[in-house]
Design brief:
Length: 420
Amino acid sequence: TATHQLNPERYVHTFKDLSNFSGSINISYRYLAGTPLPRKRYLTIGLSSVKRKKGNYLLETIKSIFEQSSYDELKEIAVVVQLADFDSAWCEGMVQDISQKFAHHIIAGRLIVIHVPEEYYPVLDGLKRNYNDPEDRVKFRSKQNVDYAFLLNFCVNLSDYYVMLEDDVRCSKNFLTAVKKVITSREGSYWVTLEFSKLGYIGKLYHSHDLPRLAHFLLMFYQEMPCDWLLIHFRGLLAQKEVIRFKPSLFQHMGYYSSYKGAENKLKDDDFEEESFDIPDNPPANLHTNMNVFENYEASKAYSSIDEYFWGKAPSTGDFYGIVFEKPIKISKIKVITGTEDRQNDILHHGALEVGEKIVGSKKGRQCTTYLRLGEFKNGNFEITDVEHKVLFDINCMRILVTKSQKEWLIIRSISVWTS
């Protein structure tokens, strides 16, 4: 939770200055492998790694990034690994391993390994012991904040976007394509952080133009609190109040041991899907319903890939949830899920899905005059493929129709449309 407060009076002047933090932090980086990138990429993936008492997952993480990317995707990514341990023998050993295993990625300019010498670090001993953390824990998390600040600072001009991973992460297949789809779907809307995992700081995506501010911010408050809490504050300070998190998750924690003292860390993201990641296209559309909407669980929430839903009070026969596409489309697949794990009875008990053509009405009240029924809901869900072979017209509308009144309320958790 983000209830851990930064003292606003004390820092109010620095918050105002946050917008001025466009310059980079003046430190020297050592290139341990690779050379400066010849051209700007779409996405930089940043990893920071230190020596662990038990288990080392860094090589597995790098392997997963490259293996789960197609040849075309590889052209658009850069991976920056920061070896942030002050033990030079460990760093040298890791560089050798990385250089042997991923030589062709280094030569292709996709992988860089860097290190920041200890002399550039601020004081790490005798820091404030917030939250009654033991001194070595405070030192560990404070240094980690500085590690990430230095890594972000290095990555400022490498690409359009930056995603933060840890050194013990598994990626889902074609994660870059999924990320691009999501970014495209958010065009024109303001965001600071998009989240592709619900764990810590795994899978947090930023605009590269925000990296200088974020780097300065982590340095400014490095001894105050752990990095993942600071990231929540940063997002809030830049006026993104809500979490924007996408499901299924693209990144999974694979480490069994934490980098802090080798403590066990069994955190797993249960929304992670390795293979079947297939983000729907959900083309632009107007959404409307004649159901009685509960609070702010409005119609639009069922049609987004964000983790939210539509919730209506007990629907009656003939009630509908309608989608009017901005342009006629060809559809290959449709999937609708109702109910949630917490409210398994708030499903559509009796319903059908229909697609329509021939639009009438003005901008606000547009609807189709002719509908074709594609099938019934089963156990609250609906899925159909090969729609383009079953429907011979270009589709203007889609609607979920309640075919029998129910006393339970209705949650439409997600509506997914794939175009052909």
